[in-house]
Design brief:
Largest sheet of chain B: 5 strands, antiparallel
Distance between the termini of chain A: 42 Å
Oligomer: heterodimer
Radius of gyration of chain B: 20 Å
Mean pLDDT of chain B: 81
Number of strands of chain B: 7
Largest sheet of chain A: 5 strands, mixed
Strand order of the largest sheet of chain B: 6-5-4-3-7
Number of strands of chain A: 38
Low-confidence stretches of chain A: 1-18
Distance between the termini of chain B: 31 Å
Shape of chain B: flat
Helix content of chain B: 25-40%
Low-confidence stretches of chain B: 1-36
Structural class of chain A: mainly beta
Helix content of chain A: under 10%
Number of helices of chain B: 9
Order of helices and strands of chain B: HHHHHHEEHHEEEEEH
Chain lengths: 539, 271
């Protein structure tokens, strides 16, 4: 080899290796490099906001496909792709990982999960919602409750950590959250009567640093909210990625429904910490505060939505806030340092609560419990929102949520626990068809007051993205990827992708050009302005 | 059923003569490790909303018959339950375990061993009415003959019970078939009557073929398809419960309806 060329090659490799390092400092300052999308929600505060502003209300009508990736695994992709330094990482159904050249869509490497033939995913299927990046490692949850670390350059396995026993119904579908040398993950399985937890693993070795059980053992604070032995099968899944405030050192993570799902007779009490938001000390996993949205839930209203961190003025004073558009139909704002309840406002037409009291506890209407004969209630079990993401735009100062307006008939029947089987105690029959609808809602982030609403044909299963260009992007069950004016809600562009959209959009930039990406069916579709169209800088 | 957290368990409200565990085991389907009454309970919670209590049919085909069009074998039946039927409203029930699907299949097969419905009418007289005074072929295809505006009736005897056939004839608006309209929150009526007024003031009437947030495709009475941009509509009126099919309650006597029902109940597709 020519010596000079060799040295030049080494220098090039060194540069790209350095570029491939997604350091903790870069994650903290993700907003400063809008070309990349480095965490599941775009930044550790989970705002799902891209500062990119090349695509605007004035030119979005020219948006067209740049490339499409067709998954090798059939099955609806719920992935949020991450983009770092020109490489796009996505997960297919079952958690297989693919790295693509973000400019051309060509495959760079692929990691195939080895899954057991008797894989258990009771209630949700072996889906996967994305990866986490830290330094030069990709982290992905395997459906059978293992955490896998891959070399970001090749897809080679660095380590695999067993998280929980899949035979008991523990499974993993969410994107991990990586920061400060560790990887945080949650689990699914409340429908099988698991006892949920949030785990943190050492990013370098895969050793577990801490575990926080979402259901306390007898004698621990909160154990008084469970009757008898019910805590052992109390559920409390942690299946949606949380958010992190480096300044406070606090990790925010939502907790799902109690078990059994629809029959609460054997678990009298509030059933902490199900249907709650946890604020955990990220270093130790100890609980700093909690807020329970739906005490003693019997309608599957998990608090497994994205906790969004932002700053706002409450009664004239600047506050650090965390908000959640909860599955139960209310939008909640809390002080994220203390957990103090600040406001809670319905964002759909719900009929289970008269309202919230001064501490944010719901004031129940009579006869809302599931019964043998059936109880009609709004929202349905999938809630006013679900796992898919909302967006917050610091540019417009608005919180955007894809809201679901539908009801259901809730049933209750007797139930007993069998390890690794459904543990439900009831069911629901949803009121579908033309009566079920949705809307994209823009809310005042502090008061929850609605600013505008864009109606959707059916209750959505796709998240939203807000951009610095002044747009909100989202997707529909019927396969439409669309752009709305972030200020007015006016529809400005739409594209029929050909399959249901059940994922969150992201934005990124390569070589000075802004792209939008959304998973639709088993494809990832990437859009940009036509090359012939003169473009302004991305930022 | 979308690949999301979907569980539509429900208790049946009406009751039907329950099969004994022994009857269920009589099927030559092989051993299962689910509890014996799982099949009926699961069927009632997962299937009755579309297929009716006891599998007598509803918006989806009746299942209480010895042969099922899409499931000639027990294995095929399990596959239909777990994998769905692409292009139809029959979704994949991946939330069920293989054992649970097997126990539902056992229950469905037991339903199929019930005595057949008694049909008082004369099929030959029914055929004459279908081809003559009824004018049914103007809209329906049967064994390749007729016009394809309305559902194909070649195998309608496999899909609908006698009671449903009669209801379809006398009260078509209340017996609407469901649409494969691609959205996860169906079922949607297949022939929803709509009237759209464009911003230019043009009024288009017809039945909905498909719809999303931005598009409405409807078929006018003359068969023309109209693909409309919903953002350019001034008004969109939907009239559920109306069918383009006329009621035959006043056209045919009770005996004639019996004949027509007997004829249609015998339409079971290509052998």
């Amino acid at each position: 080899m020519n010596r000079g060329l060799g040295m030049a090659l080494c220098a090039t490799l060194a540069t790209s290796a350095l570029q491939g390092q997604v350091t903790d400092a870069r994650l903290r300052a993700a907003r400063q490099e809008p070309a990349n999308w480095l965490t599941y929600s775009g930044d550790l505060g989970a705002q799902r906001y891209s500062p990119l502003r090349q695509i605007t209300p004035d030119n979005v009508a020219s948006l067209r496909p740049a490339w499409i990736y067709q998954a090798t695994m059939p099955g609806l992709m719920q992935t949020t792709p991450l983009i770092a330094d020109g490489i796009l990482y996505l997960t297919e159904f079952q958690g297989h990982v693919v790295a693509l050249d973000a400019l051309s869509g060509r495959v760079l490497w692929r990691y195939q999960q080895a899954l057991p033939a008797n894989l258990l995913t009771l209630g949700f299927g072996p889906t996967n919602r994305g990866i986490a990046l830290l330094d030069s490692t990709v982290f992905v949850a395997a459906p059978d409750a293992r955490l896998v670390a891959l070399d970001a350059r090749s897809g080679a396995v660095r380590w695999i950590a067993p998280v929980a026993d899949n035979a008991l119904g523990y499974a993993m579908t969410g994107a991990p959250l990586a920061f400060e040398g560790m990887v945080v993950v949650g689990v699914s399985g409340a429908e099988a009567g698991i006892r949920g937890f949030v785990d943190a693993y050492d990013a370098r070795t895969g050793a577990r640093r801490w575990r926080f059980h979402t259901i306390p053992t007898p004698g621990e604070p909160g154990s008084e909210t469970w009757g008898g032995e019910s805590w052992k099968t109390g559920g409390g899944s942690t299946w949606v990625t949380g958010s992190y405030d480096p300044a406070l050192g606090l990790l925010y993570w939502g907790v799902g429904n109690p078990g059994p799902l629809w029959n609460g007779d054997d678990r009298p009490g509030d059933n902490l910490y199900t249907c709650s938001l946890l604020a955990l000390d990220a270093k130790t996993g100890t609980l700093r505060w909690h807020f329970q949205y739906t005490p003693h839930d019997t309608h599957d209203w998990d608090a497994a939505q994205i906790p969004v961190l932002f700053e706002g003025r409450v009664r004239g004073a600047a506050r650090r806030l965390v908000s959640m558009a909860n599955r139960n139909g209310f939008y909640y704002v809390l002080d994220r340092a203390t957990g103090e309840f600040l406001s809670g406002t319905p964002y759909i037409r719900q009929n289970w609560a008269e309202g919230l009291d001064a501490r944010g506890r719901p004031i129940l209407r009579p006869n809302t419990e599931p019964t043998a004969e059936g109880t009609d209630l709004i929202p349905n079990l999938h809630g006013a929102s679900n796992w898919y993401s909302p967006a917050y735009s610091p540019r417009t100062g608005l919180f955007y949520v894809a809201a679901r307006q539908m009801g259901s008939r809730y049933y209750k029947y007797p139930v007993s626990y069998t390890p690794g089987r459904f543990f439900l105690g009831g069911g629901e029959s949803e009121f579908g068809g033309d009566s079920a609808q949705g809307a994209v809602k823009a809310l005042d982030p502090v008061t929850g007051r609605e600013r505008w609403s864009f109606p959707l044909f059916s209750p959505p299963w796709a998240g939203l993205l807000a951009t610095g260009g002044g747009l909100v992007f989202g997707g529909t069950n019927e396969g439409v990827f669309y752009a709305l004016d972030a200020v007015s809600g006016r529809p400005l562009w739409h594209f029929q992708t050909g399959a249901m959209i059940n994922a969150n959009p992201v934005a990124f930039a390569v070589a000075g050009r802004q792209y939008l990406a959304i998973a639709a069916g088993s494809t990832l579709q990437v859009f940009s302005l036509p090359p012939a169209l003169p473009v302004t800088p991305t930022r | 059923m979308p690949p999301v957290r979907v569980l539509t368990f429900a208790l049946a409200l009406a009751s039907t003569a329950p099969l004994t565990a022994q009857e269920a085991r009589d099927s030559a389907f092989g051993p299962i490790d689910a509890v014996p009454d799982d099949g009926q309970r699961l069927f009632e919670s997962q299937c009755t909303r579309c297929h009716g209590v006891g599998g007598t049919g509803g918006v989806a085909p009746a299942l209480n018959r010895p042969t099922l069009r899409r499931a000639p074998t027990d294995e095929a039946l399990v596959q239909v339950i777990l994998g769905g039927v692409p292009g139809t409203a029959m979704v994949a029930f991946w939330n069920l375990s293989a054992d649970e699907a097997k126990s539902i299949a056992l229950y469905i097969r037991a339903l199929g061993r019930r005595p057949p419905e008694i049909l008082p009418g004369d099929p030959a007289l029914g055929q004459a009415l279908y081809e003559g005074a009824g004018g049914c072929g103007a809209c329906h295809v049967l064994d390749g003959q007729g016009a394809g505006w309305a559902p194909d009736l070649s195998d309608v005897g496999l899909r609908l019970s006698a009671a449903q056939l009669r209801q379809s004839l006398v009260e078509p608006g209340a017996a609407q078939p469901i649409s494969p309209l691609p959205s996860v929150h169906g079922p949607y009526p297949a022939f929803l009557a709509v009237e759209a007024t464009t911003t230019a003031g043009r009024v288009v009437r017809g039945t909905r073929v498909t719809e999303d947030d931005f598009t409405l495709v409807l078929r006018a009475a003359d068969g023309t398809l109209h693909s409309l941009d919903k953002t350019r509509l001034r008004r969109l009126r939907k009239s559920p419960g109306q069918s383009p099919m006329p009621s035959y309650a006043g056209t045919f006597s009770a005996d004639e309806l019996d004949h027509l029902v007997a004829y249609l109940a015998g339409r079971k597709g290509a052998p």
